[in-house]
Design brief:
CATH class of the largest domain: Alpha Beta
Helix content: 25-40%
Number of helices: 16
Structural class: alpha/beta
Strand order of the largest sheet: 7-6-5-8-9-11-10
CATH superfamily of the largest domain: Vaccinia Virus protein VP39
């Protein structure tokens, strides 16, 4: 029941200022400390942006999560009273935001939206502000886009996509829905729903800075059929064609850890050799092993084709970059020889040792989450020796702890199996989860196990959470999105099974952003 009279309500509303809010002041303070100067609330521009950089054609909006309907944010809930007043008011705000965003982009402004909830961690916000301000919108093309994890990370890092190519209609539906909702970085993606084998690269005559490719992983997945290069879904030959025709400055290829297993090692070696010398092409009806042998002879001679790349390959754990999931992936980076000779993967920002130290030496982790001593689980026996070492040898203080499932989803409403929270996008707990030998659920106080797409439906073990009674339940789609570091306003419109498969196949957004940011730095400094 609304107990506030209209006069009091008007007085309260008058105290709400549309500008100079606390989140906006935080952003302005950080920008000023970084040496940037700006104009405020330029009424000549659509939407009257909060912060304007005329010389860079960049603007920043700092939005309150409630007033601008930050979709999926746990802090946003419609008032229970006078819903007929609040709903159209708030939805109108969101609609005007989308309209302003589109108008600004149409006249050539680079728009960045910062939400109130994103100003809490000033360290992360500062890093993102630097990346945004220093980005000069390098050009990229991405193959096998899927739901857009790799593409979103690259966009955040300052790349402008000239084309995103994806054949799967449901993945395209997910991207288009988020474009329609006006999500930052996604709204202007040029998405092509088609087979990469039919894509014409001659349309892109200007220099392409980045070629990204999350080639289908099923041929090499530990959970798949292990057919490798014999699998009709092996699309690496199309990656090679794109490199030859586009001649990108840098290449960013992601695939499953299974590609590095011993049985696929010869084919991985072939992939790296072909990326190094993309113009030493495959001959019709030539077995790939024969082509590999030719490439090896070419390398031994010290020969280089006119188009040559320095190639780096590493198995990277996403947890080391702030992803709340132990997700090992093969990352292949190619640097065109005239751009840079050296490449170093970005230094890890998060550490298992720091998490163990803060859990079992200082107890800071439990205190931060307000978990009483009697409710804390014991340490994993496998970690006991490491914990004892850490007592006398504290970890690097500059690193942050691995993020856990609790860190990622604790603020989401707890609901029972079969229930849905309609105030949170995609937050529905599907019933029927079970674990089985070798495939058990994730611990609440450790990074999640690797989310998987599954060959036949949703995997019952890895995509589940161990509950307090020793049983398991499925993660909701929203929880999986958190574990893959998609923003809370990114919506998955397809069925539960399809959405979980898209997330299982996705590149974690934060991992993509970390690597793409380093690639951008190398391009600019080179």
């Amino acid at each position: 029941m609304d107990i506030t009279d209209s006069e009091t309500r008007s007085a309260l509303m008058s105290r709400i200022h549309p500008k100079d809010t606390n989140p906006e002041l935080i952003v302005r303070k950080l920008l000023h400390s970084l040496g940037y100067r700006y104009r405020l609330h330029d009424a000549r521009l659509p939407g009257k942006p909060d912060i304007v950089f005329p010389g860079k054609n960049k603007v920043i909006f700092v939005h309150g999560c409630f007033w601008h309907l930050h979709q999926g944010c746990p802090n946003v809930r419609f008032p229970k009273s006078r819903l007929e007043f609040w709903r159209p008011k708030l939805e109108g705000n969101a609609a005007r935001d989308r309209e302003s965003l589109k108008k600004l982009q149409d006249i050539g402004w680079d728009v960045y939206v910062i939400w109130e909830c994103e100003t809490i961690d000033e360290e992360i916000l500062k890093e993102r502000l630097v990346r945004y301000m220093e980005s000069d919108k390098l050009k990229s093309i991405e193959l096998f886009t899927g739901a857009g994890g790799l593409a979103l990370g690259a966009s955040r890092a300052g790349f402008r996509h000239e084309a995103l190519v994806e054949l799967n209609s449901q993945a395209c539906q997910t991207v288009r829905h988020n474009q329609f909702m006006g999500l930052t970085h996604i709204v202007d993606w040029p998405l092509y729903e088609m087979d990469v084998r039919d894509f014409d690269y001659s349309l892109y005559q200007e220099s392409i800075d980045l070629l990204g490719a999350g080639a289908p992983c099923q041929p090499f997945s530990l959970g798949g059929k292990h057919r490798g290069c014999q699998d009709e879904r092996n699309m690496f030959p199309e990656v090679f064609r794109a490199i030859r025709e586009l001649k990108p400055k840098v290449i960013f290829v992601e695939n499953v850890k299974g590609l590095a297993r011993s049985s696929f090692a010869p084919y991985l070696n072939y992939i790296l050799l072909q990326i190094e010398n993309p113009e030493v092409t495959w001959k019709r009806n030539e077995p790939w092993k024969s082509h590999r042998d030719r490439l090896e002879r070419f390398e031994k001679k010290g020969s280089h084709s006119s188009l040559h790349y320095t190639v780096h390959c590493e198995v990277v754990n996403a947890a080391n970059y702030g992803v709340p999931q132990i997700r090992d992936r093969v990352i292949v980076i190619g640097m065109r020889s005239d751009v840079a000779d050296e490449w170093h993967f970005p230094a890890p920002t998060h550490s298992m040792d720091v998490l163990l130290y803060r859990q079992w030496v200082t107890g800071e982790y439990w205190e931060r989450h307000v978990v009483a001593a009697k409710n804390r689980p014991g340490p994993n026996p496998r970690h006991l020796r490491r914990i004892e070492i850490l007592r006398n040898n504290p970890p690097d203080p500059l690193l942050r702890p691995w993020k856990t499932v609790r860190d990622a989803i604790q603020d989401l409403p707890r609901i029972a199996e079969g229930q849905e929270d309609k105030n949170i996008l995609n937050h529905f707990i599907n019933p029927g989860a079970r674990s089985y030998p070798g495939h058990t659920g994730s611990s609440y106080d450790w990074p999640a196990k690797t989310l998987k797409a599954g060959v036949h439906g949703v995997p019952g073990g890895e995509n589940t959470l161990v509950d307090g009674n020793g049983g398991v339940r499925y993660f909701s789609v929203r929880e999986c999105a958190r574990l893959q570091t998609f923003p809370d306003d990114f919506y998955f419109p397809c069925s539960w099974t399809v959405s979980m498969r898209q997330l299982g196949n996705a590149v974690p957004v934060d991992l993509s952003e970390a690597i793409a940011s380093e690639l951008r730095r190398v391009i600019i400094s080179g």
